[in-house]
Amino acid sequence: MTPGARAEKGDLLVREGRIARLGVLEASETGGVPCLDASGCAVLPGLVQTHLHLCQTLFRGLAEGLDLLSWLATRVLPLEAAHDEASMRASAELAALELLLGGTTAVLTMESVRHAELVVDVLEASGLHGATGRCLVDREEGAPAGFARSKEAELEETVALGRRIQARHGGRIGFAFNPRFALSCSEGLLREGTLAARELGARLHTHCAESPHEIARVREETGLSNVAYLHEVGLTGPDVTLAHCVHLSPEDLRTLAGTGTHVAHCPSSNLKLGSGIAPVSELLHGGIGVSLGADGAACNNELDAFQEMRLMGLLAGVRSGPGSVSPRQVLEAATVKGAAALGRRDVGTLEPGLRANLTVVDLTGPHVQPLGEEEDPERIETALVYSARGGDVRATVIDGRILVRDRVVAHLDRERILARAREERRRLLSRAGIS
Ligand SMILES: [Zn+2]
């Protein structure tokens, strides 16, 4: 996914977790090296998703037919508030299993106000790369009792968690500072939190300009557009990823471009909550880094990066005309642009020296064929975006470790994770008083 690079037939040699060489390898180079047969497959840089809530995976199918603000107030926040340690772990484990099987190798996630450290544990055990952290909420309106706390308490807990994450993971998993959205936080929390997070070297990540109601409320309270308000409090810049950005003015586009702010496009979520269609073609023309995210199982209802790629291309066609966004641009959003949003230069492309994070996609299924091994690279890109599915991922490799082989996760207990998810969801619903 480097500029100008195209699909080529060949081998990829991994040494000590990094890509050592691309091309046709000699027998002398491969002797004694474990081999992953990828014939009939495309080998992509590991897919990256830059807007996810692992804590919401147990809520799959439980928050249907609602717009954003009612979805949050009546289902998602009460369910998040009902999480205990066991349900949070079960939710994150189910997400990690689904993500790895679908070829996702790195994530930027926003977790709930409590138990976020368990998600860090799960990410670490799963092998995924990324950044994560708790969400911040210091305004009670629209939140269940006890969910919002004082600005001081929110800052203290978040900074303490950020310090622990940064100390513990040394690069593979970093700290994400996640104010939930403009309406859930006081201006003081946004300003002070942003400064504190930058001191810790965090990635900054929030929701922005998602639904018309939300945007109208932000304007009522601040007199500004959502982007302008976040810019005003310091939440723009190359270390910031704003999820959604569905409704933007020309001035907002200039602000995002001028500050180097990243946008996480979440097309399934935008369709499910009826939020609208993001101006992806305008964002790309403005030079803004666009990456992709499935958001959460509560508004998607799956975490399949291939679905998001396909919808990115299709919806850009509806909004700006067919062909306005190329398959190549979609693949970049799911790989190198996602890595950039995470502030990572050691993943996102297939180049010697970078970490060997790879997504191996089987292109031999009837829904992808006919496609030969000598096919035009552009047709392979088209097949990956418009024909391939998460279920076509044959292998997922992270740091050179084959974590998924022949569609089986070796290092996680699939049946135990699924059984625990069912059991913990039953308990969660009873705690939340939802039938
Ligand atoms: Zn979200």
Overall shape: it is globular
Mean pLDDT: 95
Radius of gyration: 21 Å
Low-pLDDT residue intervals, each spanning 5 or more residues: none
Distance between the ends: 46 Å
Number of strands: 16
- Small molecules bound: zinc ion
Structural account:
This protein is an alpha/beta fold. 41% of the residues lie in helices and 18% in strands. Helix 3 packs across helix 16 and helix 5 (151-169) packs parallel to helix 6 (187-199). The longest helix is centred in the middle third of the chain and has 19 residues, at 151-169. The structure holds zinc ion. The site of zinc ion has 6 residues, from loops.
Summarize the structure.
The chain is of the alpha/beta class.
Main features:
435 residues; alpha/beta; 9-stranded parallel beta sheet; 18% strand
SSE topology:
Layout (H helix, E strand, L loop, with lengths): L10 E5 L2 E6 L3 H4 L10 E5 L1 E6 L15 H14 L3 H17 L2 E6 L6 H11 L2 E4 L2 E2 L14 H19 L3 E7 L7 H13 L3 E6 L3 H11 L3 H8 L6 E5 L5 H10 L2 E4 L1 H6 L7 H6 L4 E3 L12 H16 L6 H8 L1 H6 L16 E5 L14 H11 L5 E6 L2 E5 L2 E2 L4 H19 L3
Parallel strand pairs: 4-5, 5-6, 6-8, 7-8, 8-9, 9-10, 10-11, 11-12
Antiparallel strand pairs: 1-2, 3-13, 13-14, 14-15, 15-16
Helix pairs in contact: 3-4, 3-16, 5-6, 12-13, 12-15, 13-15
Bound molecules: zinc ion.
